[in-house]
Design goal:
Low-confidence stretches: 12-19
Oligomer: single chain
Radius of gyration: 22 Å
Structural class: mainly alpha
């Protein structure tokens, strides 16, 4: 039997359709759960640090990492440490300019908000906890506060968010995985470099990652809530 004369073929799927409200709600709840979990872990770690309960852990990890020291490895770790500070500043400025030139305004705003929040967190938390720096293995003793590691905090916020905005614009699953893997490896190497050089305790680095996770998860939650509200207003 032939098709009804007034029937129409189904509409083609939209290639970049925004997530439906149920998916947005799931993403919102997941981001909120991640933020709360990271906040609880940070609070627990901070309490353990200032009760002195992680001193043995910090000492063991510092000694274990330093046991692998060599001139070549020291040069590599100094490079990763630079990538986590001077290199990060240069990469941040270049990324924002490039995104604006490409008219990726939302991506540029993500980077600006993530790094601005990291700066506020770094200054506020270091001023609140006043943990002295450890005696470094390489270089001179710094006289600013140690907890949390600013390199760990900033690298997570910047390189993690940069990976997110780039992966969102890639269609190949393999390339998405590659971008996330490179970002994760870089963030981990920057944190390890601070422990290797002896300028931070391992607990400082973990605290930096946790503080960054709180901030980035909160940004994701706020974005999903905003998008869900806008979709509800249009429906």
């Amino acid at each position: 039997m032939s098709a009804h004369p007034h029937s129409f073929p189904p509409p083609l799927p939209e290639p970049e359709r925004a997530p439906r409200p149920p998916r947005l709600r799931t993403a919102l709840l997941a981001a909120l759960a991640a933020a709360v979990l990271a906040l609880l872990l940070f609070a627990w770690l901070a309490d353990e640090v200032f009760e002195g309960d992680v001193a043995a852990f910090d000492a063991r990890v510092r000694d274990a990492v330093h046991a692998f020291s060599s001139p070549a490895l020291t040069a590599v770790m100094r490079t990763f440490s630079l990538i986590g500070y001077q290199g990060l500043i240069a990469a941040f400025a270049a990324s924002v300019v490039i995104f604006l030139l490409l008219r990726w305004r939302r991506a540029a705003l993500w980077l600006v908000f993530s790094v601005a929040g990291a700066l506020v967190l770094d200054l506020a938390l270091k001023s609140a906890y006043h943990r002295p720096r450890p005696t470094p293995f390489f270089g001179d003793l710094r006289h600013d506060w140690s907890f949390p590691s600013g390199h760990a905090l900033f690298s997570f916020c910047f390189y993690g968010v940069l990976a997110g905005v780039l992966a969102a614009r890639l269609r190949s699953p393999g390339l998405k995985v590659l971008v996330w893997a490179l970002a994760a490896a870089l963030i981990a190497a920057i944190g390890l470099s601070r422990i290797y050089l002896g300028v931070h305790y391992p607990s400082d680095v973990l605290a930096g990652y946790l503080a960054a996770a709180v901030w980035v998860s909160s940004l994701v939650a706020a974005d999903r809530w905003r998008r869900g509200r806008n979709q509800a207003a249009k429906s």
